[in-house]
Amino acid sequence: MTSRANVAAALFAVGVAVAALLQPAHVAAAAQDQAVKVGVSAGAHAEIMDEVRRVAATRGLALDVVVFDKPAAIDAALAAKRIDAASFEDEPAFDAQRKQHGYALTSVAPTVTFPIALYSRKLTSLGQLQRGATIAIPDDRDGAARALILLQNFTLLTFKDRAGLHATVRDITSNRLNLKIRQVPRARLFDSLNSVAVAVIDSDDATRAGLYPARDSLGLEDARSPYANVLTVRDSDRTQAWVAQLVAAYHSDDVAHFILTRYQDSVRRPW
């Protein structure tokens, strides 16, 4: 082989080696360029995630916000890898879905709290609550427990410590005003305001009835409630760099400002 041929062969070999080295980097770069798909329900979750998307983009993370008409389908879509993350449900609801279906999913950060609250047409403050007054709470198990926790937080009731997030009226151990607790179907809680002193109504039902927690309630659930909503991902993705970036974008000052100005504390942030 001539020296010129040797040089050509050597250059070809070097080119192949360089191409081999560059290809994985190119593939990795392409993978990083893929937008992270975040599943959300319509309404506040979608609006907030749009702001998160804007903030994340300025930090080099592309998000694709996927709005689901049926929130019940979001966990399944995340488990099936049709989306990469989700933001739509509270921690207890997420835990229940994960256990029921065996999903390998995990929560990585709190997002927002949609507070249940105390409403009244007869009182302007809880200090006016009379002994023996009637308080209406949801009649479903989860709603009742959440309402009882709120009443305990306002020192109106106490119940067995072991009851926790599963408290029922049977777990009440102290009722200093001898309040009557009436369990009412959620759809009738707003109408019950005509006959009870106070009703505990969740954020969605209150908003549909024209009530806004921060403006119209006698007392709000704390932002750091155990019922705060969560950002979720697959177990296998928990340590991926984009997860930390997504959380940081969500917990940014810009998003905090958006939540406060858009919802006036009727949607609360637990971070």
TrEMBL record:
<dbReference type="InterPro" id="IPR004872">
    <property type="entry name" value="Lipoprotein_NlpA"/>
</dbReference>
<keyword id="KW-0564">Palmitate</keyword>
<protein>
    <submittedName>
        <fullName>MetQ/NlpA family lipoprotein</fullName>
    </submittedName>
</protein>
<keyword id="KW-0449">Lipoprotein</keyword>
<dbReference type="Pfam" id="PF03180">
    <property type="entry name" value="Lipoprotein_9"/>
</dbReference>
<comment type="similarity">
    <text>Belongs to the NlpA lipoprotein family.</text>
</comment>
<keyword id="KW-0472">Membrane</keyword>
<keyword id="KW-0732">Signal</keyword>
<feature type="signal peptide">
    <location>
        <begin position="1"/>
        <end position="19"/>
    </location>
</feature>
<dbReference type="GO" id="GO:0016020">
    <property type="term" value="C:membrane"/>
</dbReference>
